[in-house]
Amino acid sequence: MSKKILLATTLMLVMSPSVFAADGEALYASKGCLACHGADGKSPIAPAYPKVVGQSKEYTEQQMKDIKSGARSNGQSAVMKGIMAAVTDEEIKAIAEFLASSS
Ligand code: HEC
């Protein structure tokens, strides 16, 4: 790679805000969400599991926080609670933004 291209790439990375914000799409994959909700967020592995795209980011964020904290706890949410222990509030926000913007 030439020095010019390297410099341009570095500048792009430094100036892009997305480098600093958590990447919701990458997190959705790396945290294992797709194992239950499907790669596209709308093909869950069981009929009783919800599709997670297309809701508002506010709603989606709150549901994840409630499942994490246990405020939302029915038979089904227990399945997801363990996963949420490894997801920070900032990551929840980024994932919610990604899911709300997908359809
Ligand atoms: C082991 C399976 C499993 C995994 C892994 C999992 N979930 Fe879930 N998720 C569920 C189930 C089951 C529910 C429904 C809970 C209920 O019935 O209260 C749910 C509910 C939700 C909801 C609420 C949907 C709504 O309409 O209220 C969202 C949002 C969500 N999951 C996102 C995620 C994200 C993001 C991840 C990864 C960090 C994740 N889930 C990982 C099983 C899972």
Automatic annotation (TrEMBL):
Gene3D superfamilies: Cytochrome c-like domain. Residues 1-21 form the signal peptide. Pfam families: Cytochrom_C. InterPro entries: Cyt_c-like_dom, Cyt_c-like_dom_sf, Cytochrome_c_Oxidase_Subunit. The keyword Transport applies. This is Cytochrome c. Keywords: Electron transport, Heme, Iron, Metal-binding, Signal, Transport. The keyword RNA-binding does not apply. Residues 19-103 form the Cytochrome c domain. Transmembrane segments: none annotated. GO terms for molecular function: electron transfer activity; heme binding; metal ion binding. It comes from Cocleimonas flava.
